[in-house]
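Session log. Operator J.P. requested a structure for one protein chain; no other inputs attached. Running the standard single-chain path with token output.
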Amino acid sequence: MVEKFINSNWLLFNKISRHLYHEVVSQMPIIDYHNHLNPHFLAANKQFENLTDLWIREDPYKHRAMRINGIDEAGITGNSTDKEKFLNWVSTYPKTIGNPLFHWSALELERTFGISEMLNSENAGRIWNQCNEMLQDEEFRMQNIVGKWNVELLCTSDNVLDDLSAHDYVNQLNTGFDLLPSLRADSLLNYEDGFLHSFIQQMEECTRLSIHSIEDFLQAIILRLDYFKDHGCCLSDHGLDAGFEYIKTDQDTASLIFDKLMSSQIISDTESVQLRSFMLLFLGREYAKRQWIMQLHIGAHRKTSTRLRKLVGPAGGFACIGNTCNVDSLTKYFDELECHNLLPQIILYTLNPADNAVFASITGSYAEDGIMGKIQFGPAWWYNDHYDGLRKHLTDLASTGLLGTFIGMTTDSRSVLSLSRHEYFRRILCNLMGEWAENGLIPADLDLLSQLIKDIAYNNIKLKLTKNSKKWQKAIKEAK
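Structure written below.
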């Protein structure tokens, strides 16, 4: 008989790591400050139709793996039945050994449904029926699933034009966790394929402003930022693809480029960079004025398969790791904001692990009196949040930055079961610290290490969101 895989000491390979996990961090609350959960599903306390609806439909990681395995797109995101899609995942799962999906999926089944056996073709039918029966119970509605992970706060990613009433509604309920929006502002920087015209029309309808110039556009944006602020938002986010470029651009130049777009003229690649640079500078300043934290996700190469983009949309899980960051552009952008005393707090994410040490070193290049971790190297992201990637990320940050100020893990996921990744991260963190202590690299001082683990897993991000934004607790109190 195969020994239970996810046991109590899973990934904890020495006594110190086991103490740190079981006695210090395992029961600490979770603050998931960046995810793509649907706030309307949370407000409705969604009841999932079946295991595919819960576990596969919103998980592009699984979709990507199934594509690599040769599964037809109809059997992944298309018109196949949910059971067929589940069985396609079952046929793919054994091949994910070495991929974080193997660990995550085992952990998700264990923690959510108490299923400790490895999923395979022989038990697939029984597990499908067992989980589907459990999903009919109130305990497995979306809010209650969140509750299984001891979540204190979720920050969803919300488009600048989104209605935020679902967040207010959830915060009036006795769910045990709080829900805040964060601004995903990519649509403000998209000037390709005629997108701006349709977006401007939507922005006019939303703000009831007529937008004919860049000045009008900026005023409409300010109205939306204020709307997000009134609903407790304290984080923004931008996906800046590989090769991020920044060119200092004044408003007159940006206005000429904007007018070209509004009159359906084609702009050059350089003009696109200039307008995007101007808008990023404007947004960075506005975030700083509101004491928001600005997240920058850098390094994804998203334009790969035109066929798949047309089939499943731009967020279908088929982007790849892009080129390393243009450090000169990034630091010029930060410097321009800092020179005007309007550099917001920043969280940097990289998809290219070659940038780990670079981003960790940038955390020491900018500072503000009294602010711990003004620039943060955020958690390992996307293709880096596997076992070796998390260890490398922590080691690179410790070597080049300041590990004790790190703000821990996020899920960055559309699947509610991805909250299990906090446990995954915490186990790896505890094991790495225990390993260093056991090897004599750091003192085997349990008080010292316990405080470090608590700070990384919970205290640092809690302090940043409450003290620095000054909005979280007030917003939640007002909503309730």
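Operator note: Strands lie at 30-35, 151-159, 178-184, 235-240, 293-298, 300-301, 320-321, 345-350, 375-377.
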